[in-house]
């Protein structure tokens, strides 16, 4: 079988070596398409592939149409909003993700960005500390739980809200469970977003919620840009000169957000899962899931059921 790794944002070299070992040990062939700049390159590379490993690469109807032999596509990572799941199903392709494999990397970046934000982006002026501050975690999945773990090391007060995670699970992790998103934003100095991009969450983070942050509040997004209502947030930042917005996913309105110098920061390219460890974990997990699918028909992590 031919396994294609198609990554516009490539894995660390060690991750590709690990994927190659897993794939070739079972007698399959690895094909690499890294740093491609044109969708046509993906459409041509996928023609021969029986399986494909991707990151945030968009796999839509056109890609599935070109992928005549494709049986399985694995998103090496958590969020699979880049795969057209209906198209996968109608083309009889199994779509999977690798939950939890890169969550520590994303959680660590949250604190890298937060320390920078509370120290005024290292401009030489006196900042504040994270210790004793109230951190709100919106969605208590794999990343949210790692954020809670690290926040305790900073001696922060940790709160969380998750529509789907029972409160007793949140409380068992030593975290205050909020009853609503409103309660989370009202009661926390900093809110960190860990919600996926779904029809329910798209544009759900706007002035109604963020405007409830207390004076000096910080919104940090390491999830998806689509969850932010950019128009409302731009207006809010103009009216509330105490608020900061820090993001690992550059908003469409980056140029307008940049007007709020000293209160806005975006990484140039999504960096959350961009560590050797996360790439190795997620990439090798993806390769192993493909092998188990070919060997035993295992579809444990299928997301297009
Ligand atoms: C994920 O959903 O796993 C993260 O957002 C990482 O995405 P990336 O592989 O594009 O860095």
Explained architecture:
The two termini are 24 Å apart. This protein has 12 helices and 12 strands. The model has no long low-confidence stretch (mean pLDDT 98). It has helices at residues 13-25, 39-45, 61-66, 85-90, 103-118, 142-153, 167-172, 181-187, 207-210, 230-239, 254-257, 276-296; strands at 2-7, 29-34, 51-54, 72-75, 94-97, 134-138, 157-161, 176-177, 190-193, 218-221, 244-247, 264-266. It has 2 domains: 2-101 and 275-296, Rossmann fold (3-Layer(aba) Sandwich); 124-261, NAD(P)-binding Rossmann-like Domain (Rossmann fold). Helix 1 (13-25) packs parallel to helix 12 (276-296) and helix 5 (103-118) packs across helix 6. A 7-stranded parallel β-sheet has the order 8-7-6-9-10-11-12, with helices on both faces. The protein has a 5-stranded parallel β-sheet with strand order 2-1-3-4-5, sandwiched between helices. The protein is elongated and about 60 Å long. The protein is an alpha/beta fold. The structure holds 3-phosphoglyceric acid. Residues 9, 55-56, 77-79, 102, 270, 272-274 line the site of 3-phosphoglyceric acid (3PG).
Précis, in short:
The protein has 305 residues and is an alpha/beta fold.
Assembly type: single chain
Number of strands: 12
User: How many discrete domains?
Assistant: 2
Would you state the CATH class of the largest domain? Alpha Beta
Provide the CATH superfamily of the largest domain.
NAD(P)-binding Rossmann-like Domain
Q: Taking strands numbered 1, 2, ... along the chain, how are they ordered across the largest sheet? A: 8-7-6-9-10-11-12
* Envelope shape: elongated
Ligand names: 3-phosphoglyceric acid
What is the string of helix and strand elements?
EHEHEHEHEHEHEHEHEHEHEHEH
pLDDT < 50 stretches: none
Number of helices: 12
CATH architecture of the largest domain: 3-Layer(aba) Sandwich
Q: Helix/strand-derived class?
A: alpha/beta
Sheet having the most strands:
7 strands, parallel
Query: Kindly state the mean pLDDT as a whole number?
Result: 98
Distance between the termini: 24 Å
Query: What is the CATH topology descriptor of the largest domain?
Result: Rossmann fold
């Amino acid at each position: 079988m031919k396994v294609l790794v198609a990554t516009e944002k490539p894995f660390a070299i060690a991750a590709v070596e690990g994927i190659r070992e897993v794939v070739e040990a079972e007698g399959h062939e690895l094909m690499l398409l890294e740093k491609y700049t044109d969708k046509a390159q993906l459409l041509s590379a996928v023609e021969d592939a029986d399986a494909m490993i991707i990151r945030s690469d968009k796999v839509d109807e056109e890609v599935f149409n070109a992928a005549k032999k494709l049986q399985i596509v694995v998103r090496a990572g958590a969020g699979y909003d880049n795969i057209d799941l209906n198209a996968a199903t109608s083309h009889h392709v199994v779509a999977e993700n690798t939950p939890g494999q890169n969550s520590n990397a994303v959680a660590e970046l949250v604190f890298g960005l937060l320390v920078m934000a509370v120290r005024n982006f290292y401009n030489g002026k006196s900042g504040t500390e994270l210790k004793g501050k109230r951190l709100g975690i919106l969605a208590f999945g794999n990343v949210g739980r790692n954020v809670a773990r690290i926040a305790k090391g900073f001696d922060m007060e940790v709160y969380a809200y998750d529509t789907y995670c029972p409160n007793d699970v949140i409380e068992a992790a030593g975290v205050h469970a909020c009853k609503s998103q409103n309660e989370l934003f009202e009661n926390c100095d900093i809110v960190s977003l860990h919600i996926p991009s779904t029809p329910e969450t798209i544009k759900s983070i706007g002035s109604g919620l963020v405007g409830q942050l207390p004076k000096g509040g910080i919104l940090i997004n390491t999830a998806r840009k689509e969850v932010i209502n950019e128009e409302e947030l731009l207006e809010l930042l103009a009216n509330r000169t105490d608020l900061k917005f820090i993001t690992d996913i550059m908003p469409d309105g980056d140029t307008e957000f940049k007007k709020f110098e000293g209160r806005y920061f975006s990484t140039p390219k999504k960096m959350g899962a961009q560590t050797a460890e996360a790439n190795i974990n997620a990439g090798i997990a993806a390769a192993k899931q493909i092998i188990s699918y070919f060997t035993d028909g295992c579809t444990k992590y299928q997301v297009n059921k």
